[in-house]
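Assemble and predict.
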Amino acid sequence: MNLLSIKLGERVFGIDTGKPLSIAIPLDFAGAQPNAYDVERASSTPCEAGALVGDTRRGGSCNFEQVKFIPHCNGTHTECIGHITRERISIHDCLKDAFIPATLVSVEPENTLETQETYPVDLSETDKLITRNAIEKSLQNLENDNPKSLIIRTLPNDESKKTQTYLEYIPPFFSTEAMRFIVERKIKHLLVDLPSIDRIFDKGKLSNHRIFWNIEQGAFETNENSFVNNTITEMIFVADEIADGNYLLNLQIAPFVSDASPSRPVLFKLI
Ligand SMILES: [Zn+2]
């Protein structure tokens, strides 16, 4: 055991640094991948530059490949407010936290006909909502010390989330009430196992993204009250073995000067 002590609020916990629990979906360039909107797959091709060959199988001295991908669509990624602003703002500048007290909850999305909660576009009968009611209930079951990060695992927790194409299949998304609740709870980092916190076809409103970053509906500008250091991580996968509860989250991104970066969120159990 590589035990590290940390103080969260008034309490002291240990974490075992030798037991990281990754909740990223590995991006397999040669295998099955998740895909939002059925865009081009993420690909990796050996480079050739003059006499250099970036493939050891073809006589090169080492491997070096060019990768091509769309962070928002090809797998686990973390995004910042720059996702919806005209001004280009980068995740590299926005993400200030590296170790974050986090709570993981499992939530059953509800049939839109069975809930009183709302979403600002016309919904179809098959749409499912992650409600404020469901999030609040699952948080009540946990001893909770004001987490800065909320990780939502949707039920059923099917392994197909690692390879799902989201186009004809519309995955669950958050109700307006759920998103306001998350903001009220001062959650700075939201992580979900869905391609978007909004309906993937929402007439371009991205209303939940705007609530989370406190940008006016319909606006493309930040204001002085916008939450510029908040992040959203989408397309995670939380294995069943990782129980609901409180963790320390290490949110790792590539140092991209871009609104989003592929990411590797890692959880550490608090002991
Ligand atoms: Zn995204």
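DSSP finds four helices and 19 strands in the chain.
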